[in-house]
Amino acid sequence: MQTAQVVAGYSLGGADLLRRAMGKKNAEEMAKQREIFVEGAAKNGIGADKANEIFDTMEKFAGYGFNKSHAAAYSLVAYQTAYLKCHHPAAFMAATLSSEMADTDKVQFFVADAVSHGLTFLPPDVNRSRHRFTPVDAKTIRYGLGAIKGTGESAIGAMQRAREGVNGKAGDFTDLFDFCKRIDKRVVNRRVIEALVRAGAFDSIEENRARLMASVGIALEAAEQAERDALQVGLFDAGSGQEQRVHMIEAPPWSERERLLNEKQALGFFLSGHPYNEVRAELSTFVRRSLGSLEPQKEPVLLAGIVTATRTQMTRRGKMIVVTLDDGTAQVEMTVFNELYDAERAKIRVDDPLIVEGKVSRDDFSGGLRVVADKLMTLAEARGRYAKSLRLALNGKVSLGDTAAAEKLRVLLAPYRNGVCPVRVRYRNEEAECELPLGDDWRVRLDDELLSGLQQWLQAENVEVVYQ
Predict the structure, then answer these.
(1) 111-126 pLDDT, tens per residue?
(2) Do 445 and 394 fall into the same domain?
(3) E strands within 292-341?
(4) For labelling, which of 9, 215, 264, 440 has a CA lying 20 to 30 Å from the CA of 95?
(5) Beta partners for 72?
(6) Is residue 10 a contact partner of residue 35, using CB atoms and an 8 Å limit?
């Protein structure tokens, strides 16, 4: 308002009308005000070019600007925040994360920011973690149990009181049965314990999360039975002091993918690893660029990542799907227009890898990259397109003349016949080595299920997808 008064001779009332037009972004009114401003500036000896330049600056400021007192307050907060983040990074980020524990997206953002600045996160731990994120040293933060979905402050408080021995034994929990025996089961119920297992909070006690998950039920039952027994003292068993020992249910460990997907269910994102790592080495043979190194170029680009989210948008061209890909180096939003989506929608599955052939260009609106998909492929389809052969190594443990082994191989390959990838069998013993190609009618589709079955039979190192 003061600029309009001094430069263009506006009255206070006229300057307020200009302010209102800027605030409401009224294009017609702003065009009228520009003419008035330029005419008024001319009376004060200011040329039209300079007057228009001043008006443009005022118009931009109206888009997002602060008065001096507001800007000064924000500057002071920004300075204090920058100081704390620089000199006390772990304490600052722990406090920031604790203030945003209810918002998974913000927790994920701040964790990624902290890691990019050299901080390390210790996993959630029933024996070490508190409700909030806590700094361990200047560069290390212990993950807060309150950021695990399905827990709650009352349940975590009950766990801390059990650790401190408020109602009995104090100290670390020694195993799942000790945990269930000591906590208040009215607050820390089965859902809470399973969330803690998925998040890895029991890893310091038992690394096999599948075994823990399978045993939660019997551990709770054993704890409840022990409580009932404690209330019943008989004439002949008063001094026995013996408890029936219950053992955990055996279960094969989760694969890395299963572990990470369960972790995501509990935390909202992958903390201890990334599912793309499972396929990174294989995909790197034909996907040359990571998402973090993408650059605009005219030629189509082959890229890959794990689908982490999808959303629908309506445009003048109709509906389009925005797919978020993540390969551990960066997250990229990719546009899939309606025609391609209708034909290939089954290939877009959250938490599964997706290989994309598309165009990467500069997005002038956001200043980032714009990725438009031209073709979508599942991992099995990409293997079929780029693989030279499937090589199976039989190192003497399985004889070529063993009819049972031949039948086992036939049973494993049969459901995936009529694919495009040839199969070659390499056999080696103490005397000789040879490589035999199977006939063209035994070309296969390289689905995950086929490779998994072969790896279980022959071991992973003896099953190799050979690329060009």
Answers:
(1) 999 999 999 999 999 9
(2) yes
(3) 297-315, 318-326, 331-337
(4) 264
(5) none
(6) no
One domain for residues 395 and 373: no
- The reply to whether 261 falls in a domain is no
DSSP summary character for residue 145: G
Cβ burial, residue 377 (10 Å; 0-12/13-18/19+): buried
Which of 377, 397, 417 is the last residue in one of the domains? Answer: 377
410 and 461 both lie in a single domain: yes
Number of domains in the chain: 4
Could you tell me the pTM of the whole model?
A: 0.75
CB under 8 Å to 392, separation ≥6 — which residues? 409, 423, 424, 425, 426, 454, 458, 462, 463, 464
For residue 123, what are its two tokens?
Answer: 């996993």
C-alpha distances (whole Å) from 426 to each of 122, 268, 396, 407 are 45, 44, 10, 17
In whole angstroms, how far apart are CA 249 and each of 30, 146, 196? 74, 28, 18
Domain identity same for 92 and 225: yes
The Cβ-side half-sphere exposure at 341, using a 13 Å CA radius, reads: 17
Q: Which pLDDT score, from 0 to 100, does residue 401 have?
A: 56
Domain ranges, residue 355: 279-377
55 and 129 share a domain?
no
Q: Within a domain: residue 258?
A: no
- One domain for residues 313 and 434: no
**Model confidence at 153: pLDDT above 60:** yes
**Class of residue 48 by CB neighbours under 10 A (exposed 0-12, middle 13-18, buried 19+):** exposed
Length of the chain: 468
